[in-house]
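Hey all, quick one. A colleague (J.T.) asked me to put the adenosine-5'-diphosphate job into the tracker so the inputs and the structure tokens live in one place instead of scattered across chat threads. No bug as far as I know, just bookkeeping. Sequence used:
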Amino acid sequence: MGITEQDQTGVLMEALPYIQKYNGKTVVVKYGGNAMIDEELKAAVISDVVLLTLIGIRVVIVHGGGPEINDMLGRIGKESRFVNGLRYTDSETMDIVQQVLCGNVNKDLVMLINRAGGRAVGLCGVDGGLFKAEKLSDGNDYGYVGNITSVDPALVEDMLEKGYIPVVSTIAQGTDEETAYNINADIAASKLAIALKAEKLILLTDVKGLMLDPKDETTLLREVKLSEVPRLEREGVIRGGMIPKVNCCVEAMRSGVQRANIQDGRVPHSILMELLSDEGVGTMFIQKAGD
Ligand code: ADP
Ligand code: MG
């Protein structure tokens, strides 16, 4: 497949208004799922982040680590169950979550970004009092899963100011108990985007976006109005891991984040496509007057 010189110039010129639009703005990317396991995809995400930083976009990465946590739990013969898309976290699982997320996963990402020419700093949610939480209690028992009660983005802002790329793993310090809590990474990314007054929230996942039928990619919903979400939830379209994802996009947009997107992390450079081209990818949430 060859592209002509004219096509190439076209692509670059198409990026200009988007570079102008996002220059100096903050974009929070939630990174997780398959895009974080496959080495080639990982390299593509990392190079997107470095490129965006070099053109003056303030990128913050918030990462999950579900597969790595499952892997470690498997090694000690433990399995997780999920309640409404959230991992039930007993105290042994909480230990593993903290070790894997704040240790291996976070530092590996930092090293990769540094190697690709960016300057990354790894943080977890307890550093600088970034995330405070109490036990999530909505009638279900999730164990040590926290509900974020406050976000202090000062440390992240300082880093962005100095040109660093903050890489955040999502545990939070408990305010009700002497414990760390496990925080779903989509929710943490959304809360941080709100606190940073980010322009955009991008949630990378291992499917094309929100689909009417998760087994059929042709049923991808390219645009979802915020007001449509309760109906989609009632009808059971939004299930499992999509529940926190969709809810936190709605919350982000109702709280001042201009755009929220759920998109496919398995497609190389989908972050660049979404931010710097006319081509929209995945599911975009839209807010109409009165929504
Ligand atoms: P992540 O690591 O990205 O948070 P999750 O497993 O938590 O991944 O959430 C994504 C999963 O949500 C998909 O792999 C899919 O199985 C599930 N899902 C449930 N309902 C839908 C839907 N309507 N459209 C797409 N995916 C859905
Ligand atoms: Mg999830």
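Adding what we noticed when we looked at it: Residues 274 and 280 are 5 Å apart (CA to CA). The longest strand covers residues 26-31.
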